[in-house]
Amino acid sequence: MATTLQRARIAVIITFIINGFTVGAFVARIPDFKEILKVSNGTLGSSLLFVSIGVFLSLRPAGRNCARYGSQPIILISSLALAFSLPLVGALLSLQWLWLSLFIFGFTLATQDVAMNAHAVLLEQQAGRRLMSVFHAMFSVGTLAGSFFGGAMSQWKITPLFQSLLLLFIIALLSLFLRPMFMPATADQHPIEKNAEHRQPLIFWILGFFGLCAALSEGAAGDWGGVLARETFNATPFISTLPYILFCSAMILGRFSGDYLAHRFGASRVIMVGGVVAGTGLLVGLVVGGIPALMVAWFLLGLGLSIVIPLMFSAAGTLATQNYAGVIAPSQAVAKVSGVSYFGFVIGPPLLGFLADQVELRWALLFNVGLSYLLIFAARYAKAA
Which of 43, 139, 141, 173 has its CA 20 to 30 A from that of 21? Predict the structure, then answer.
C-alpha cells in the first residue's frame, strides 16, 4: 500500500502535468485566436500581455493564502478555477472578452503554479531528498503533450470552445480525485509575524534574478529559434521546428536527472556546469552557424538551463523553512522567486526583438550567452537547494 508521501508525490506529479498540459494546449491554439477574432499580430501580442498581468497580480495573494491555509486547499481551488477559466478563453466573444478571460486564465494558472510548487517543497522536506527537478520535468512533459493535443485539435478543426470544455471536464474530475492524496493542509500552514513582509531578506530576490536569467534564455529558445532557423539559415517550416523540439527534449532529460545530479555532485556545482554548458553550446552554435550547429546549440542550451529554476525554487523553500521561519513562509518565498523569474518570459520577446532590430538576430542572441554564463555565480546561492 502506498504511503502518504507516495500518494502525495503522485498527486503533485499529476498536478504539474495538468499545469503544463494546459499551457501547451493554450499556446497551440493562439493562431486560431488570431484567425477567429481577425486581429493583427500586434493586437494579439498586446492581448497576451493580459495573461502576464494576471500572473503577476496572483503571486502575492497565492503565496500568502498558501501560508495561511496550507497549499492543499489552494491547489484544489486554483485547479477548479483554472478549469472553469478555459471556456471563458475559448468562447472568444470579442477582443475585450479575450482580455478579461486571459487575465483570469493567467491569475488561476499562476495560483496553481505557486501552490503546487509550495507542496513540492513540503514533500522534499518531508522525504528528506530532492524531488523538485522531477516535478518540473513532468511540467515539461505536460507542456509537450498539451502542444500536440492542441495542435491536433486545431488540425481537426475542433473549436477552441469545445477543446476548453473537454479540458474543463478532465481537469475538474482529476482535481476532485486527487484532493485526498495531498498532504493535509496543516502540514504547511505557516503563521507569519506582523509586519514581517517589510523585512524579507534580499536572498529571495537574488534567487529570483538567477531564475530570471534562465527564463530569458528559455523564452528566447522558444520565441526565436524557429525564426533564426528559417530566416537566417533558410530552413523549411518543418526543419525550423526541430531546434525547439530538441530544446524541450533536453529540458525533460535534464530535469529527470537533475535531482540525482544535485544529490551526487551538489546543487552549486550542477548549476555552475549547467551555465557553462548552456552558454558555450549557444555561443558555438551561433558562431559556427547552420542548422546542425543550431540544433546542437538548442539541445545544450536546454540541458544547461533545465535545472536552474527548479533548484532556485527548492533553495527558496529550504531557506524560508530553516533560516527565516516566522519571517516568510516557503510558499511566499516560492511566489517571490517565481515572480522575479517569470518576468523574464514577459520582457524576453520584446527585448530580443529590439536587439534584433539593432543587429542581426543571430548576434542579438549573444545576449543570452552572457545570461547563461551569469548562472555560474548562482552556484553560491544554490547551496541551500
Answer: 43
- Please state the φ and ψ torsions of residue 268, each to the nearest 5 degrees: -60, -45
Does residue 175 sit in the same domain as residue 210? no
Q: Half-sphere exposure of residue 92, counting CA atoms within 13 Å on the CB side?
A: 20
Phi, psi of 360, rounded to the nearest 5 degrees: -60, 145
Mean pLDDT by 10 residues, the chain (385 residues): 86 97 89 89 80 89 94 98 98 96 96 96 92 94 89 90 98 97 93 60 91 89 80 82 86 94 91 96 95 95 94 91 86 88 78 84 93 91 70
For the chain, the domain total comes to: 2
Ranges of beta strands (E only) in the chain are: none
- First-to-last alpha carbon distance for the chain, in angstroms, is 30
In this structure, the answer to whether residues 56 and 156 fall within a common structural domain is: yes
**Which of 170-190 are b and which e, b meaning 16 or more Cβ less than 10 Å from the residue's Cβ?**
ebeebbeebeebbbebebbbb
Range(s) of the domain holding residue 288? 199-381
Look at residue 1 in the predicted model and tell me its pLDDT: 42
Is 192 domain-assigned? no
Beta-strand runs (E) in 91-234: none
CB of 83 closer than 8 Å to CB of 168: yes
Between CA 341 and CA 57 the distance in angstroms is 14
CB-based burial, 278-302: b 16+ in 10 Å, e otherwise: bbbbbbebbeeeebebbbbbbbbbb
Quote the pLDDT of residue 10.
Answer: 97
Residue 186: inside a domain = no
Q: Looking at the structure, do residues 208 and 327 belong to the same domain, yes or no?
A: yes
Q: Does residue 189 lie in a domain region? A: no
Would you say how long the chain is, in residues?
A: 385
Question: How much is the CA Rg of the chain, to the nearest whole Å?
Answer: 20
Residue 278 CA to chain centroid, in angstroms? 18
Establish if 223 belongs to a structural domain.
yes
Query: Which grid cell is 214?
Result: 534562465
